[in-house]
Amino acid sequence: MSDHDEDGHAVSATIGRDEAAWHFESKGNHRNFGFAYDPTIDCPLKIGVSTGAYISTVSSQSALVIIDMQNYFLSDAMGRARGAGHVAAENLIRYAIPAARKAGIRIVWLNWGLTDEDMETMPPAVSRCFGFVGRAGHHLDQHVVLDRHGFLRTDRTYGGLGSEMGRVTISAAEGGPKEMDAGRLLYRGSWNAALFPPLAPHYRPGEGDAWIHKNRMSGMWGSDSLLQKYLQHNRLTTLFFGGVNTDQCVGSTLMDAFSLGYNCILLKDGCGTTSPQYAHDAWEFNCENSFGFVTTCQSLWEAVSHQLSRDGSSQPS
Fold this sequence. Notes:
There is one protein chain. By secondary structure, the chain is an alpha/beta fold. The chain has a domain of 198 residues: Isochorismatase-like (Rossmann fold). The chain is 27% helix and 25% strand. It contains 8 helices and 15 strands. Helix 2 runs parallel beside helix 8 and helix 6 runs parallel beside helix 7. 38% of the residues are buried. The model has no long low-confidence stretch (mean pLDDT 91).
């Protein structure tokens, strides 16, 4: 369907059925997709997206899902040089998180948090992604660490999910200098699974933030997904995604959410990856053309500011 008919009149459409249906409307070059459209809501949050269209959502039905911004993936104590994930953290802190708080959008911190029970059923395909342990030597009596491709890793002594990582040195920039026991790889309660220090003060359970553990790259995986249970219980249907890595844990969670019927928006400057840039770009392309919409942390902030100015409320800070 075109944006407007031959006479330039407004066009409207209902996409989907029942209470989850979207309401689309356009006039001229202005196009808007309204999620769970309710005409009784005077001031929905209206956000510009990468295609030039707008989306409208209800803040109380929305969540900002921040994925895997943990020490293991971002800390310089783990050898992580500054990269796209650190820039994403800054954009989340400056724009997306304060905007979400001011608008009443729930903030969900979705992180790896393994248990012994998880490890008993961990598939080899998932384990391999984080390296593994082997034995070498004439009598196979030497402990060796291998990467996901089977090459020897001589630069570390830990091997794979749940392995003891030993002690690490924390830099002054991250609260040191000091030494810490890094704990078991991506285990609940360990230092390496804790939030990256710049983000840690922004996790505020007293303000309604949720911390949700996952045991796969996708936080939506499985019939007993803690994330899905939380979203269903709180009737949250629109999800803004940020975190690391775009093409792995963020992307797989977003795709599963899309398949389950959630309204998905990728914050392209609120997520990053250590993969080549084309891997991130491919996710942006597929998200705006298939899985949902793409916008920025600043666009979310600006949309909330505009909404609050119409309501006469103070702007996010």
